[in-house]
Design a protein that fits this description.
Layout: H1 4-10, E1 26-28, H2 35-43, E2 51-52, H3 53-58, H4 71-74, E3 97-100, E4 105-108, H5 110-113, E5 115-120, E6 123-128, H6 136-152, H7 154-163, H8 169-193, E7 203-204, H9 206-218, E8 232-233, H10 255-265, H11 287-297, H12 307-310, H13 315-328, E9 356-359, H14 360-363, H15 368-375, E10 377-379, E11 393-395, H16 396-414, H17 419-425, E12 430-432, E13 438-440, E14 448-451, H18 472-475, E15 485-488, E16 509-512, H19 532-542
Parallel strand pairs: 1-6
Antiparallel strand pairs: 2-4, 3-4, 5-6, 7-8, 9-14, 10-11, 12-13, 15-16
Helix pairs in contact: 6-7, 6-8, 8-9, 9-10, 9-16, 10-11, 10-16, 13-19
Length: about 550
């Protein structure tokens, strides 16, 4: 009999299956990567430990209609099919799955959330580094449900054991004990991660989930649980290694710090248990691979508008749009050729692409993301309290920053990195302290939102930090002209208004801007509304970026 509690807790109705992209010929945008570099990005382990690899290979999905790892099944969550088995991906898993052979773990990589396919004129086009149409929350809840049902249904567990070639009674008991412990882990983690405001495709409440993973799971402190209710869009990866700061609230400067935190939030782990002792801050994150992938991403070029497929750009209208953009948008949005930071303010005389900063109240977009981030408080334990002079309750942003930094510091020490190599993995994001020594960058504000450079912006919709506006045209329009409900997960480009076509269709996610965190207000530049022809002109200019 199926366990009713498990179903009440984890029940999830999958999206209708997408078309299997492996059946269509995929054309890749020219972005400076070779096929081998693309494979490296897709499948290199980063330290995400989702589930033992041999278990994942044979686990049945919740409905019992096949393997959970079947790429056709995983496509309903938005995962992209691979080109088949390869040395980097022997299991032929979808883009963004990695196998850590040393740890026998399946995990996710950056590519899962930062690789997109678009449909245009019957073609399927792959854009590396673009925001994926992935519902990672639904995927994880479904995985947890499949694990729980395997444990509670005797026949299902028997099939699981047989598939693993575990047949003698003693080995079966050992397997069940290990699987029971894993079920407790993934079920409790699924509760910690379960969204109270559904993200749907292309979004996730990453900051809350990272903080919950550290504060609740890794500290073994359930009282720290915090609602997962402010999802944000996956940003594009191109230009990221060159940016001064990243995140929608631009707080992360060090690339290895940012990537370490990402791994710990996406099913990695670090030891923050109260009795951690000498193992405190030992993590699963792979320092070497993360640094290599950062170097690889630094060579990724934004996708360029393809006139042969997407239509010619009207040069006269684009020229008018450039003038309008400079008048109304360029104060916040850096545009090529990019304005760079002052090398005199960097210890190593390095320069980076300057990002725009706007206080969240000034820009007027939905405030929940920033409000939740800055008002959260977290209880420490015997392991983490010393990071905060023994304080038992600390601000959420500080807790996340300091625990990730301590985990990174341990990884750097274990890797025996030189001082020079340490500066390099941190991306040389150092100013000069009062003592004349290098000091890590500190964000000037926790309540700003980032105005990103707009290279390849046509491939990055929906727009605003929370993905609440489906097209650039609507973003340039008064709030009352923006849709209050639209559907995400579709892959057909809207070449006229820039973004994705977002009408209702089977398998898509209904985005309701009336929910807290999903608001589509703000970003009213200029205050006086643009005419239709002015919006069209700015759009034409953005196609050139």
């Amino acid at each position: 009999m199926r366990n009713a509690f498990v179903f009440c807790l984890l029940m999830f109705c999958p999206h209708d299956s997408f078309a299997d992209s492996s059946l269509a010929k995929v054309t890749y945008f020219e972005q400076g990567w070779s096929a081998s570099e693309r494979e490296e990005f897709y499948y290199t382990p980063q330290g995400s430990h989702l589930i033992p690899a041999d278990w994942f290979a044979v686990l049945e999905r919740a409905d019992g209609q096949g393997k959970f790892s079947d790429p056709n099944y995983l496509s309903q969550f938005g995962f992209l099919a691979s080109n088949g088995a390869s040395q980097a991906n022997p299991g032929a898993y979808p883009v963004g799955f990695s196998v850590d052979t040393q740890a026998n773990q399946i995990g996710l990589t950056c590519a899962a959330c930062h690789t997109a396919e678009v449909e245009l004129g019957g073609e399927v086009l792959r854009i590396d580094g673009a925001p994926a149409h992935l519902d990672v929350d639904a995927f994880y809840q479904s995985l947890a449900q499949a694990v729980s049902l395997t444990l509670v249904e005797a026949e299902r567990f028997k099939r699981f054991a047989v598939a693993l070639k575990v047949t003698d009674e003693t080995s079966i008991k050992e397997l069940k004990a290990k699987f029971t412990a894993f079920n407790l882990h993934i079920t409790s983690d699924a509760i910690v991660r379960k969204a109270s405001v559904e993200a749907g495709f292309g979004r996730v409440d990453a900051l809350t989930q990272i903080a919950n993973a550290l504060a609740v799971r890794d500290q073994v402190l359930p009282t720290n649980i915090y609602p997962v209710e402010t999802p944000t869009s996956y940003p594009p990866l191109w230009l990221t290694p060159q940016l001064e700061y990243v995140q929608w609230n631009p707080i992360a400067a060090s690339p290895i710090g940012r990537n370490f935190g990402e791994v710990l939030g996406v099913y990695g782990n670090t030891n923050l248990a109260p009795d951690a002792g000498k193992d405190a801050y030992k993590s699963s994150a792979n320092l070497e691979n993360l640094h290599q992938l950062e170097q690889l991403v630094s060579t990724l070029q934004p996708p360029e508008w393809d006139p042969s497929r997407m239509g010619e750009i009207d040069a006269d209208i684009a020229a008018n749009g450039k003038t309008l953009f400079q008048d109304h948008c360029a104060t916040c949005h850096n545009i090529a050729p990019y304005t760079l930071t002052d090398p005199a303010k960097n210890y190593f005389k390095k320069t980076f692409i300057k990002i725009g900063r706007v206080n969240f109240r000034e820009v007027g977009t939905d405030p929940a993301y920033v409000e939740n981030f800055v008002t959260r408080r977290i209880m420490t334990n015997a392991t983490t309290a010393p990071l905060f002079q023994g304080n038992s309750i600390v601000p959420g942003p500080a807790f996340t920053e300091y625990t990730v930094a301590a985990s990174l510091k341990r990884a750097i020490k274990e890797a025996s990195l030189s001082e020079e190599a340490t500066f390099a993995v941190n991306g040389f994001r150092y100013g000069t302290g009062d003592d004349g020594k290098p000091t890590p960058y500190t964000p000037p504000s926790l309540t700003d939102l980032k105005a990103s450079p707009l290279a390849g912006v046509w491939a990055t919709g929906p727009y605003l930090h929370n993905g609440s506006v489906p097209t650039i045209y609507e973003l340039l329009s008064p709030v009352q002209e923006r849709r209050t409900v639209f559907w995400t997960g579709g892959r057909s480009l809207d070449l006229e208004k820039l973004g994705y076509q977002s009408s209702e269709a089977p398998g898509l996610f209904r985005f309701d801007t009336g929910l807290r965190g999903n608001g589509n207000g703000g970003h009213l530049y200029p205050k006086k509304s643009l005419r239709h022809d002015e919006r069209v002109a700015i759009i034409e200019y953005l196609k050139t970026q």
